[in-house]
Here is the input.
Amino acid sequence: MKLAQEEAFGLTASTVTDFYLVRAEYDLRWNNFDVAAEYRILNSRISNQANSNSIKNGYSAEVGYVAFENIHVGVGYNFVGTEERDLVGKDYWSAGPFVSFRMKFTEKILNYFNK
Here is the structure.
């Protein structure tokens, strides 16, 4: 949850934003591949103002591969796009294919740099 407050021309507006994400991932037990599905909800509202909710939903699917221990690469597709000029620019649309890269940092990885 994020609470923001802005004042302009002697008026104050407070907004509350919630972000929820549910992700299910299944290891295929075949050559280090896995599949995943994700559902997201972004809910914004102005505090103390009725009918001010703005809800955006999104969902995606991904196929991933564990390239090395603790390093995961994936390709997927985001089925619902969102225009949000305040985040990244007016011309950005997030629907379509994507590539993901995840790395898990552990003490074992840090020991590689201490040699």
